[in-house]
Design a protein that fits this description.
The complex is a heterodimer.
Chain A lengths: L4 E6 L6 E7 L4 E5 L10 H5 L4 E5 L18 H15 L5 E5 L1 H12 L6 E5 L19 H8 L6 H7 L13 H21 L7 H4 L7 E6 L9 H8 L3 E6 L6 H4 L1 H12 L2
Helix pairs in contact in A: 2-3
Chain B lengths: L1 E5 L11 H4 L14 H20 L4 E5 L12 H11 L4 E5 L10 H13 L4 E4 L5 H7 L7 H17 L4 E4 L4 E5 L13 E5 L3 H10 L2 E4 L4 H19 L8 E9 L3 H19 L15 H6 L18 H6 L3 E4 L1 H15 L3 E5 L7 H19 L25 H8 L4
Parallel strand pairs in B: 1-2, 1-11, 2-3, 3-4, 4-7, 7-8, 8-9, 9-10, 9-11
Antiparallel strand pairs in B: 5-6
Helix pairs in contact in B: 2-13, 3-4, 4-6, 7-8, 12-13
Amino acid sequence: MSAPRSRMLELGSGRPTIELVEAGQGPNLLFMHGAGGVVWDGALPLLAKHFHVYAPVLPGYGKSAALGLDLLEDQFDLFQHGFDVMEALGLEKPLLVGESLGGWIAGEMAALRPKEVGKLAVLAPVGLWRDEAPVTDLFGLSIGELLPFLFHDMASSGAKAMSQLTTLMSEKDDKTQAQVDQLIALLMGFRTAAKFLFPVPETGLERRLWRIRVPTLVLWGAQDRFIAPSYAEIWAKHVKNAQIVLIERCGHLLLQEQPEASAKEIQRFAGI
Amino acid sequence: MKFTWFHLMPYRWLPDDFRERYHSVWVDLPNGIYDPVKGHDLYNEYLDMLEYAEECGFDAIAVNEHHQNAYGMMPSPNIMAATLARRTSKAMLLVLGNSIVCYNPPTRIAEEFAMLDVISGGRLIAGFPVGTSMDINYCSGQNPATVRDKYREGHELIVKSWTTREPFAFNGKYTKLRYVNLWPRPIQQPHPPVWIPGLGSIETWDFCAQHDYNYSYLSFSGYKRAQNMMNGYWDRRVALGADDNPHSAAFFQQICISETDAQCEKEWWPHVDYFFNKCLHLYPGTSEAPGYRSEASLRAGIVAQVGNTSQNMGVNKTWKELVDQGYIIAGSPETVRQQLEELIKGLRVGHVLLGCQIGSAPVELVNRSTKLASTHILPKLRHIFSDFEDRWWPKPLATGRRAVPGAYNKAGAIGAPR
């Protein structure tokens, strides 16, 4: 497995400086992380065996200072930020992959500048809304209660790893400094997600979906309780070049819960 | 010293098994359990209590703002203050809403506060809370990552609209107005005194010192647990070069008074129990949206007004524990007087906001407590800090200059038969 490298990436004045996590060799894969940040386990190490994976970290997450978020005032700043990262890395027509929050950002980028994206793979992306199937409130549940919405199988290794976080939420004043730092990092990351998704994660994406013309893979966990797989049908309806793939025995966090199956689908779609 | 009678207006009929059946008193408690006909009686009973407090000689009466909350039924404090403005004539009106970020455009707040000031003859104290995360984020949909910035901008617009005598354009990030031109404008000049209710964040202390506003520390956990926080407040003022005037600070304290300590426990306990074990029943998942507090405030680990930990919220405590730990000041008039004096001198606050109605307490109990406070306690404490000027108190029209509600109808009737 390729070990990930982390470095700071300067995007220019008036723009945030961010952390970039990268690993592997091969065709360029630009990965937009979800609300949990870049978690280097699950499918990412598998993808790094076949691709050069670039995972930029949004302001507020990881080592990307939260102050940078002030420079992304609205969602269009956020999408332009994605292109700034591509430019800084010299990526031309990469395979653009995004999970949940990142799936939305990736989809918007493909809609905005279709000629600059090679292929698009979105994994249970947010951004759409149906009253009859409300998206779970990411910001209105304690972590312990959120987990069953993110995983199909709470006994899976991904779910077990994440359930460690619930200990951070204990009401006792017995946290170590490392735990306090981890808790604050988690909250500052969620703050970034909230800036663009609070209180209802509907972003106007549906009006722009038809603009996505690049080959598109829409991956969804068949048992996703966070955003129902029925949302994949909206993508199928509007995105001309989309293939929809449901992964069985899988909840919202595909890369964590079914790493092999998810990585395999992305490789197949990329033609590798 | 000045004493303000402060109402929260809790709903009185939460079921016995409330804690088992519902996960919170706030945000998503179904309104099916609210009975608007009972609510009609309750609003009027509660407003009567506030009017009685004026009759007993309290310096001010206070209302606040909460949303989708069964212990605080005043989503619009301005409506409550408007009824009080017409039914009272002496007491100042402390309105510890309006949560600036919830109103669009914020000039609505400037207008309504100006109306209240004009109707009441200049008796208004204007409160500008940021608002709890439950109120402003979960109930009002304001973005937690930007609310502080939006608050600062809204505050600037309101004060500018109060103090500017010509129309001006306001090009803010959150509000853009081509013509700001407030009608009416407030009686008090340059504007009504501003009080900022807070939960102990350093940013709020700095904001108050910078603008010379009163800082009102609102806590349900009582004066003993507030000592460290208020020490921090005074230290911060020294560090900022501000004076140590006690009137720059106010503290909220719930009190119960009966003839004797034993009688107090007997008649007040069910209502106090109702408050701490039902009204403060909160769900952690919707207690604080990510970004509501700055990283610095998170790191400081400062305990918020509500929500942080159940063990310091007064849940599952006995009467003795609540009294000993200062959550409530309760007992005979002399017991309460002693502890109030301890509070005033210990925290160094020139204003005490007394929560004289607690939980399910009915008017007969509450009014007796109010009366005992006004006759046995307040007169003995008023002299404290009298050598400091109170710059945070309204400057109303002289009593003789203030209109008397109803007087115009009487005067008109004299000339009526023609």
